[in-house]
């Protein structure tokens, strides 16, 4: 029997939870017979990781999370691993729930969004079939299951689970996300800086802000663009990495007159290369239980500008290893924080402090902390 199975739709280097799952499999595969239960697995570095391929049946977009869960249940019939770790409400409950976000908490804290000329309030967004499906699955995931442990990436996430689902706090353990020290480190960033800036067409005088996200609204993209425009400093440019194209924001970008300074690079499995080219990471997120991209950027020696709402903000000494925004919707506050990064010496000193602050989050240390709960020791 397989010792442990990790369940999520994908394990690769293209997204936050996807990278967590992939790095976890590499760690476990050196110690146990492990399996990934999902649709897509980037080959791991360990020969002890199997892929139990999940093939959801064709279904409308709003029902795809439910289709994935049912496909996992079919895949596991007759070959369930000794320990099953599931990484989200799209998965069936496992022995261990490793929670990366709470969808209900995000919807409760989110703001209105613009759809064409209309502002859609957050309360109305919850009525969308996609959100209704996720909320139903999440409620079942936490209230109709009996996990041995619930791993949360931050105390805020644990508090949300108690508040919204009356989850058993005595079974909760806070285990932060981490980073791969071979990929994300200050020396690597310095070594690749000139090459990557030349490749991306970033001039020497530019202050390149990196925005890494697959969800633009929740991560504060429009506030970031507005803050850059408010600076009126032509040296700042914004470099967006992720799956979500900028089409929905094209009108706002043009209106603000920053079209030549906002550049979309698409998704990548080598985000560390973009760290090398950047001068800071900006992520004025509205909801972020942890924020893998934050700790990875810090490990690379990048100053990070994010909000106090991010779980990973606990790793930042405000004004020393990064800058923390109080209100994710306050464009003037964000603009003033970005203005503090105009001097190269400030960015360099802050980046050095960031790399030191992130050292305790390397995956080896984090997974060692999590291992007794994952394996039931």
Number of self-contained structural domains: 2
Q: Strand sequence of the main sheet, in spatial order? A: 5-3-1-6-7-10-11
Helical element count?
15
**CATH architecture level-2 label of the largest domain:** 3-Layer(aba) Sandwich
Portion of residues within helices: 40-55%
Secondary structure tally: strands: 17
List keywords for this structure.
Rossmann fold; 2 domains; seven-stranded parallel β-sheet; 15 helices; 18% strand; globular
What would your notes on this structure say?
With 377 residues, the chain is an alpha/beta fold. Helices cover 41% and strands 18% of the residues. The protein has 15 helices and 17 strands. It has helices spanning 16-29, 64-76, 103-109, 122-125, 129-143, 155-165, 186-200, 216-219, 221-231, 250-256, 271-277, 292-299, 331-339, 344-358, 363-375, and strands spanning 4-7, 10-11, 34-38, 40-41, 49-53, 83-86, 96-99, 113-115, 118-120, 149-152, 172-174, 207-212, 236-241, 262-266, 280-283, 304-307, 322-325. A seven-stranded parallel beta sheet has the order 5-3-1-6-7-10-11, sandwiched between helices. A six-stranded parallel beta sheet has the order 14-13-12-15-16-17, with helices on both faces. Helix 7 (186-200) crosses helix 11, helix 9 (221-231) packs across helix 13 (331-339) and helix 12 crosses helix 14. The mean pLDDT is 94.
